[in-house]
Structure formats: structure tokens, C-alpha cells
Prior knowledge:
The protein is α+β, with helices and mostly antiparallel strands. It has helices spanning about 5-10, 40-60, 65-85, 100-110, 120-125, 175-180, and strands at about 130, 140-145, 150-155, 160, 170-175, 180-185. One of its GO terms (biological process) is proteolysis.
Amino acid sequence: MSASVALAALQVPAAHAATPVTPVVPPVATAEPAAAPESEAAATTTGSTAAKTSKTKKAKKTKLTRAARQRVKARTAVAVAKRQIGDPYRWGAAGPGAFDCSGLVLYSWRKAGVKLPRVTGAQYRSVRKKVAWKNLKPGDLMFFRGLGHVGMYVGHGKMIHSPHSGARVRIDKLNGYRKGSFVGAVRPGA
Length: 190
């Protein structure tokens, strides 16, 4: 910036003309930077060490609680099950492409990293965390009709399941019939 441009930018309105103004001229940059004094060099080194330390601390993963890990797996299982909506029911099938009721929940939870047995009764017995109807959370397995049917709770009073021959994987509301035939629920991965 030239000195005349800098002075023109500092022109003072007539009302303030009596007040003297000292123009500030920015320093001119040179091609080579000046060498930093030893104290500044030491501060720069210390600053970069501190930056590395803070980056190391940020890079460490925070460990999730057991309950948080279960919720992540449950969300994954629900998402996998929802992607199967419309697939046909086929007795004994565990996907992909066709499912029976226990095969759907087995497939979904396996994709979330949790192993379950193949049939409904064994699924109910193998998961230690039992859940009451009023405490259902998305991903919980719900068992009906004397452990003859299983579905997965998806939240908002609904479950996803593969209901019977001739039907397809779908989401149904949990109505009075479902509550009447409810045997129990479990929370895999807990």
C-alpha cells in the first residue's frame, strides 16, 4: 500500500479536524523472515509439543458404557430389520431375501454383532436380560403365543416381524391381541 493511499484512508471529517491524527503505516514485509530470538524459538518448540500432546489426548477413543454399546447395537439391529421390510416369510429361513420370525431377529442381531440361537424358545432362554412390557426399548425381542412367535420392538408402540406363511416382513402396531398373547421380552447385547 503506498503512503498516499494510507494517508487518504485516514482523512478526518471537518468536525474533528482540530484533533491531530498520527498515521499508522504497516511494516513492509521482506523476502526473508527475520530469525526468531532464542526465547521465541523455545516457545515455538514448547507450543508444538503441547499441540502434539493435546492431539494425542483427542485421538484416544472414549470408552462407551455397556448400556451405550447395547443401544448402538440395538439401533443397528433395528435398521437391518427395517431394510428387510417386504421380504417374504419362509419357514426355517434366516435371510437374506426370506425369513421366518426367529430368522429375522437372528439375522438382524447378527449384523449388529450379537449371536443368538436359531429358534424362538432358545432365543428367549439364552438372553439373560428380561424386560417387562412397560420397559421395552427399540431392539428388544418380544415373544408371543407360548414362545411360538418373536418380533423386534422398534419404538412408538410398534414391532417388526415376519408374521406367517403368505405374508411379508412388516411393522405392526402392538394392539390388545399382542399384549394378551405376550409371554416376555429380552434385551440382546445387554
